[in-house]
Amino acid sequence: MSIHPPEPAVTETPSDPSVSSVSYDEEIRLHYEVQRLYATEARLLDQHRYADWLELFADDLHYWAPVRTNRLRRQQALADGSPGEVAIFDETKASLAWRIRRFDSGMAWSEDPPSRTRHLITNVLVQAADESAAPGEFVAESSFLCYRNRLEREVDIYAGGRTDVLRRDPDDGRLLIARRTILLDQNVLLAKNISTFL
What we know:
- By secondary structure, the chain is of the alpha+beta class.
- 20% of the residues lie in helices and 33% in strands.
- Strands 2-1-6-5-4-3 form a 6-stranded mixed beta sheet.
- The longest helix is centred in the N-terminal third of the chain and has 23 residues.
């Protein structure tokens, strides 16, 4: 007498209601595409291929990391800085390009010899953008851990979360990062400088 494994239970296909405008298969493909985008980005940064990294961003990029402050629980809404206030990063694509050119100028002493980094990206969640976004834009949230070592004893670890607005390149259809908000899990940077992109 042969024994056959039981038939798998048929369950309703899960779907994120925030991305209800696309099918479940499209959601899976989109998540895979975003995961691959972030894996590629991490590799480019760790290999110091900054010019190639910059091509992952839209021309109207806003790359922003606000300063965070310690607040009581009832004041947590004020813990993160607002646009226009002092920020760790408040960059456009053009200003990032200037930073990258400086690495090759011989004048960026904090990165000569260059740092060794390892970017780890996890907890990726993709959802539809809010009503203020342009058609076809998506919001991707992720967590990051970046290890940096330079010379013999300089070690820095950055941890936090990112919220990206992604959109399709009208020419080739690939995903581009149009806006990035970086929230570091520390309000005082203990590193000598922050020459590492996140």
